[in-house]
Design goal:
single chain, eight-stranded mixed beta sheet, Rossmann fold, binds (S)-3-Hydroxyhexanoyl-CoA, alpha/beta, 2-enoyl-CoA Hydratase, Chain A, domain 1, six-stranded mixed beta sheet, globular
Length: 705
């Protein structure tokens, strides 16, 4: 047996234990160990059945994802031979049970489906999440799952990658029994009950009763494909997964397996899969901070407080309540406080309506939020988050106040999206306790939390913030202190180019459509309308004295604001909006653009979607390179994770820096140089981009010395 697979016995029952922490992935040695165990079971006449179980927190959570990179880079020859191991298990002449706790995901579920039976703890989950890695199930999952769960459920599970609960798996027939308490004991007892009769279900691959009829299946696949094209726009794996499940309904098992293997290979070598695997590991890598070791002591967070019950503050309070942490929510006026609480209630009610949780859960969460006008109880809070209007004077005033009321050791966080954490911290007597917690709107929905480190922020405060992010179900990314940090700093050149393209000849809808087709959740101009164009306009007016007349500035956004077109909230911005908030191109905007550009002597020309992508993406990337070089982001991956989780960047492109690597930094650099020549100094190439391009290197491999 291998080190990773243990073989023991309980009387006549063999027990195979997969012991490959942390998630019992099917790393080299595990499938081989299982096959060897089956061989031993066959050979030993005193064994009458077998249970396979995972040690530690979970059953097998899938193939070892690191192996995929080794295969596509050529480091490892040959694939992962799980398909034949599952078949060996399925062909075992003695009854077998997979005992599932935690997660049976991907190859884990595929393995379990080769067993005669599957039992699971009520808390377990099963699923085929491969599409989230740009893959499809590759060990006959698309062929066996429809035979157990039926065509519709199997196709949906393989296409959306969402796990299902043990109870749903039982209802579908994927699991045969739920066990409460001792899983191994329960699985052995289950098997002992089944053995005497000798009447076991057929091998999964020999079951056909749930494979449906061609007419019904055709309707199922057509509907699912249409829904998937919308929900997984731009992604190839979900549609490929549906093709593979369809093969299960139209081909004999072995041919279906061969078809699946062919599609799996195509997906494995695709750019999308490489990008999504980068994102999978990236989301975990961002937690690693070189000078904040894993064993840094954490501050215990039992109570929280939030200042400001507006859109952001309310969303932040909800995050705490959702995580079971009581939170005080302070506002300056009764009216604003009532409005904030009403919004929170409405958000929760919407979730109840959508069936996300019960009214009891909603009431429990609401009861954890205490609205108030003063600072009562703030002295007990372990963390206080400020989420007031974005202005330095006000923020400093608030921080001076909370410095007076907060207990020693409490974290003082600011939700600023742009301002200097060091300057905010200077208003307190304890800059080491001050940190940025930049949430994204809506704060209770968006996964990103930019955690901004000030000059004096202590390691304990950073480590606690990172761990708190996880508790709040966010992806925390540590960034350095500069105007706009990582996300909003990069957004500036991106938005600037979108507007310049409009001035040079593209319609707003052309710019937005090109970027939506590229995979962005929304186009930048539509985002401006959603967020409110007046926000930037007010800031620009405040900083008008810094305006350099020799530098080109966008013309149209300010002119729109002067006409009262602030975006969706006024029914018009870059677009006009109907009662359903649908964006409609507006001839008035077109006329305005023509007038402004004529006055400014800007030559208008036809602009291709490719140029729209290059100008906007390379602007992001060039700024990202500066950020990386300055050490504002720890790694290129951190920038990618910020953009994917906070700015609607398509995960299947891997984030802006990964995308640059896939285009090739040499090409990106060349185009940036051309744009520099054509458009001026705001396109000055970042020295790091130049350096890496000349070295033939990538952002992914760059580490700041
Ligand atoms: C597949 O199965 C293909 C087959 O169809 C065909 C084959 C031929 N491999 O997430 P966590 C690491 S595709 C390697 O923080 P949690 C992870 O990087 C696979 N490593 O824990 C992290 O490492 P570190 C289908 C893995 O408790 C550590 O384990 N399966 C794998 O929050 C802890 O992970 C999936 O897609 C893996 N498969 O969540 C499941 N999984 O500590 C992917 C995890 O160094 N995994 N690691 O940063 C998950 O969804 C979650 O990890 C899980 C646990 C829910 C299991």
């Amino acid at each position: 047996m291998s080190e990773l697979v243990k073989f023991t016995r309980d009387g006549e029952i063999a027990i195979i234990t997969v012991d490959n922490p942390p998630v019992n992935a099917l790393s080299p040695g595990v499938p081989e160990g299982i096959a060897a165990a089956i061989g031993q079971i066959e050979a030993d006449e005193t064994i009458s059945g077998a249970v396979l179980i995972g040690s530690g927190q979970t059953f097998v959570a899938g193939a070892d994802i690191r192996e995929f990179g080794r295969i596509t880079s050529g480091e490892r020859r040959g694939g992962i031979n799980l398909t034949s191991v599952v078949r060996t298990v399925e062909d075992c002449s003695k009854p077998t049970v997979a005992a599932i706790h935690g997660t049976a995901f991907g190859g884990g579920l595929e393995l379990a489906m080769g067993f005669t039976y599957r039992v699971a703890l009520g808390s377990a989950q099963v699923g085929q999440p491969e599409v989230k890695l740009g893959l499809i199930p590759g060990a006959a999952g698309t062929q066996r799952l429809p035979r157990l769960a039926g065509v519709e459920a199997a196709a949906r599970m393989c296409a959306d990658g969402q796990p299902i609960s043990a109870a749903s798996a039982l209802a579908l027939g994927v699991v045969d029994q739920i066990i409460e308490g001792d899983l191994l004991g329960g699985a052995i007892a289950f098997l002992r009950e089944k053995i005497p009769s000798g009447a076991h279900p057929p091998k999964t691959r020999e079951r056909h009763e749930k494979l449906g009829d061609p007419e019904t299946n055709a309707a199922i696949f057509a509907a699912l494909r249409a829904a998937t094209r919308k929900s997984a726009r731009g992604m190839t794996a979900p549609l490929a997964a549906i093709d593979a499940v369809e093969a299960a309904t139209s081909l004999p098992f072995d041919e279906g397996v061969a078809r699946e293997a062919q599609i799996f290979q195509e997906c494995l070598f695709s750019d999308q899969s490489k990008a999504l695997i980068h994102v999978f590991f990236g989301e975990r890598e961002v937690a690693r901070i070189p000078d904040v070791p894993k064993d840094t002591p954490l501050i215990e967070i039992r109570r929280a407080a939030v200042i400001g019950a507006g859109t952001m503050g309310g969303g932040i309070a909800m995050n705490y309540a959702n995580a079971g942490i009581p939170v005080l929510l302070r506002e300056a006026t009764r009216e604003a406080l009532d409005r904030g609480m009403a919004t929170i209630r409405r958000n929760y009610e919407n979730s109840v309506k959508k069936g996300r949780f019960t009214p009891e859960v909603m009431e429990k969460r609401l009861s954890l939020i205490t609205p108030q006008l003063g600072y009562d109880g703030f002295e007990e809070a372990d963390i206080i988050t400020e989420a007031v209007f974005e202005g330095m004077a006000l923020k400093k005033e608030i921080f001076a106040e909370i410095d007076r009321v907060a207990k020693p050791g409490a974290i003082l966080a600011s939700n600023t999206s742009t301002l200097s954490i060091d300057e905010i911290a200077s208003a307190t007597s304890r800059p080491e306790a001050v940190i940025g917690h930049h949430y994204f709107s809506p704060a209770n929905v968006m996964r990103l939390l930019e955690i901004v480190r000030g000059r004096a922020t202590s390691r304990e405060v950073i480590a606690t913030s990172m761990s708190l992010a996880k508790r709040l179900k966010k992806v925390g990314v540590l960034v350095g202190n500069c105007y706009g940090f990582v996300g909003n700093r990069m957004l500036h050149p991106y938005g600037r180019e979108a507007q310049f393209l409009v001035e040079e000849g593209a319609n707003p809808q052309d710019v937005d459509a090109a970027l939506v087709n590229f995979g962005m959740a929304m186009g930048p101009l539509a985002v401006g309308d959603l967020a409110g164009l007046d926000v930037g306009w007010r800031i620009r007016k405040e900083h008008a004295h810094l305006h350099d007349p020799n530098v080109r500035h966008p013309l149209v956004a300010d002119a729109l604001c002067e006409l009262g077109r602030y975006g969706q909230k006024t029914g018009a911005g870059w677009y006009k909006y109907d009662e359903n908030r649908r964006a409609i191109p507006d001839p008035e905007v077109e006329a305005l653009i023509l007038k402004l550009t004529a006055d400014a002597n800007i030559r208008r020309r036809s602009i291709s979607p490719d140029e729209i992508i290059e100008r906007t993406q390379y602007a992001l990337i060039n700024e990202g390179a500066l950020i990386l070089e300055e050490g504002i982001a720890l790694r290129a991956t951190d920038i990618d994770i910020v953009y994917i989780n906070g700015y609607g960047y398509p995960a299947w492109r891997g984030g802006p820096m990964w995308y640059a690597d896939t285009v090739g930094l040499h090409k990106v650099y060349e185009r940036v140089c051309q744009f520099h020549q054509q458009h001026g100094d705001h396109w000055k190439p970042a020295p790091l981009l130049k350096h890496l391009a000349e070295q033939g290197a990538t952002f992914a491999s760059f580490r700041k010395a």
